[in-house]
Amino acid sequence: MSEAAAPVTTVAPMVAPHGEVLLKLTDVHTYYGHIHALQGISIDVRAGEIVTLIGANGAGKTTTLKTVSGLLHPRTGRVTFEGRDISKTPAHTLVRQGIGHAPEGRRVFSRLTVLENLQMGAFTRSQAEMKEDLEHVYDLFPRLKERVSQGGGSLSGGEQQMLAIGRALMARPRVLLLDEPSLGLSPILVQQIFSIIQEINARGTTILLVEQNALQALTIAHRGYVLQTGSVVLSGSASEMRENEMVRKAYLGEI
User: Fold this and answer.
1) CATH value at residue 96
2) Is CB count within 10 Å lower at the N or C end of the chain?
């Protein structure tokens, strides 16, 4: 899977699944010190969905994902996963419970090999399970298998993004949080990454996606939320949001 390869065209998702609410944020307020970053956010993610968060820089998208994954904890409000309150649960515990996170900026371990990076994502798995999970990741990202002994820091930007997603998948999450997976990638690689995200979802993983490329995100998502200055200002099906005048002008580049 190289940058010279032909793009893979993403297709619109099928009708949104009507599974149970897997992940729920209710009136969540999260702070960085005295900075009120999330100001009463309420979001639902149902099993089997791709749900996207769109908004300008500083809107609270990354903070929302960090609050879900336990890197931050809400001061007030509740985060529930599979019906359990996880508002104060440590991040490493949430990995074991089924929440994976591929953070903004990829954050691969530059001095570790591709294989070692993937093994770091599998600290909750047995050796037998790890072998099976590696084959699953290599099936999604053949390029990583080709680079298995190469240092993470020497990979291209697209390969590092594949590695970051693959590392998160090694824990077999029920919900995968993806933060800006297309950031800094060529248009061809953007198409490939979004196609792979659809494949991950089709294989049964629910996805909460933060993405600067709103058009691409709304093309593959079932539903979406628009965030502005820490608040949800609009939500609906992806098709409804693509037709919304405010979304089209502010985020899809239309006048």
Assistant:
1) 3.40.50.300
2) C
